[in-house]
Amino acid sequence: MIRLIFLTLLFFSYTLKADQNHEIQGIRQAVLDYIESQEQVLPERMQRSLDPQLAKRTYWLGTDGEEFIMHSSYETMLKIAASYNKNGDKFGLNPKKDIEIFDVDQRVASVKLTVDDWIDYMHLYKNQEGQWKVINVLWQFHDTSKQKSQ
User: Fold this and answer.
1) What are the angstrom distances between the C-alpha of 72 and each of 48, 69, 125?
2) Which of 2, 39, 67, 91 has a Cα at 20 to 30 A from 83?
3) 10 Å Cβ neighbour count for 85?
4) Taking Cα atoms as reference points, which of 135, 137, 131, 136 lies closest to residue 48?
């Protein structure tokens, strides 16, 4: 009897771990689509990773010296993916893409993406089709003095 209980617990533990690994892979893929779409100039990957209601924000210093919150929308991010690295000069040969998944709870996740020049704190959710989508991003340059209008 004890052996049966042990085997049952082991089976459920393995099943839960397999499900969790599947979710982690889906989250990682959405984050990779987000960053690699910018690196490789592939807006279709950006589109695949984002929810249309995306809210991406950072603080910015305007030309008048006043700080404000700069917003980037879904549409803006698709344009960025199509143009940001068009000349191939925005990322190094082997760009850093460190993905740290802080928490996953059923259909929501919290992630930190660290790349060469900036960090993105991201919130993702899993939609009804089972796809992980980025819905919120708060970002900053590692060198925050770059966060100003020219």
Assistant:
1) 17, 10, 19
2) 67
3) 18
4) 131
Q: What is the mean pLDDT of residues 129-137?
A: 98
Q: Hey, what long-range contacts does 134-138 have (CB within 8 A, 24 or more apart)?
A: 134/30, 134/31, 134/34, 134/49, 134/50, 134/51, 134/54, 135/50, 135/51, 135/53, 135/54, 135/55, 136/54, 136/55, 136/56, 137/54, 137/55, 137/56, 137/57, 137/72, 138/56, 138/57, 138/58
Q: Per residue in 59-87, pLDDT tens?
A: 999 999 999 999 999 999 999 999 999 99
Residue keyed to tokens 């917003």: 71
Strand partners, 60: 68
Give CA–CA dist 121/28, Å, rounded: 13
Q: Compute and round to an integer the Cα radius of gyration of the chain.
A: 19
For the entire predicted model, the pTM comes to: 0.86
| Largest interatomic CA distance in the chain | 75
